[in-house]
Design goal:
Layout lengths: L5 H4 L3 H26 L3 H13 L15 H17 L1 H12 L5 H39 L11 H18 L2 H10 L5 H6 L1 H15 L4 H27 L3 H4 L6
Helix pairs in contact: 2-4, 2-5, 3-4, 4-7, 5-6, 6-7, 8-11, 10-11
Length: about 260
């Protein structure tokens, strides 16, 4: 079996904790630096995020702030979350720097693409929610507003709603990474996942039903990408099983 680096094996606990603290501070510093650069544009950022809803408000209607501090806190909170999202590559790099010394060489070759793919897929899920799901969802909500009811959404409630959806779609787009990891670590095999495809499709539509308005079109917009991303994970999981790592190719057991 390929040995891990001696420096990691001999590293005392205090040194590990010191290294962890250093990397956590760097991650926090990256978030704060981005936040400091974006804070001046906090109102513009909120206007951009709220644009999908404002496009469907009745003529003359606006969003409202029911809390005393909401006009300040909502853009502040949004800018902080945007800073965290934008700093995610730096945060993951610090995580990678902490765990990399304890990984085998073939694990490092897998971990780097997985971490990069995770970030890109999370961003892709958020973009999909903003550009595809939000217009359909808010258009539906506007169309079913009862007559005589003014559609004027509170800015704090809207922010909580869209942040939840951003996170939900970002996580949903991590399906291929999760599928690949399940195959790679041996929890399930490719054939089992292929046999469970009908269940995956049903679960995808159930998730789509829970996260989108109650119409088949918007449910399909989430369910179909989730299913396709599952197939992508199975595809790459099958490939990694057909291409053993260096420890296996040398006749040594795979850890």
């Amino acid at each position: 079996m390929t040995a891990r680096p001696d420096s990691d094996q001999d590293m005392p606990l205090v040194a590990h904790l010191t290294e962890l603290r250093s990397r956590l501070l760097r991650s926090v510093a990256a978030v704060l630096l981005i936040f400091a650069a974006l804070f001046y544009f906090a109102q513009d950022i909120y206007a951009l995020v709220s644009a999908p809803l404002r496009a469907y408000l009745p003529e003359g209607a606006t969003m409202i702030a029911t809390g005393v501090a909401s006009p300040f806190l909502a853009p502040f909170k949004l800018t902080l979350m945007v800073s965290l999202f934008l700093a995610m590559p730096v945060v993951l790099y610090q995580i990678w720097g902490f765990i990399a010394p304890g990984l085998y060489q073939h694990e490092k070759r897998i971990a780097v693409p997985l971490m990069a793919s995770s970030v890109l897929l999370f961003y892709a899920g958020m973009a999909f929610a903003y550009f595809v799901v939000f217009p359909i969802m808010f258009g539906f909500f506007a169309s079913v507003t009862p007559e005589g009811v003014a559609m004027m959404t509170d800015i704090g409630q809207y922010l909580d709603f869209v942040l939840t959806l951003f996170f939900a779609f970002g996580v949903a787009f991590e399906v291929p990474v999760a599928t690949f990891l399940l195959i790679w670590v041996g929890i399930v095999d490719v054939e089992s996942l292929r046999r469970s495809r009908p269940y995956v499709i049903v679960i995808s539509f159930v998730i789509g039903m829970l996260l989108t308005p109650p119409d088949i079109f918007s449910q399909t917009l989430l369910a179909v990408p989730m299913w396709l991303l599952f197939e992508v994970g199975v595809f790459f999981g099958a490939r990694i099983r057909r291409h053993p790592g260096p420890a296996e190719s040398d006749g040594q057991p795979h850890p």
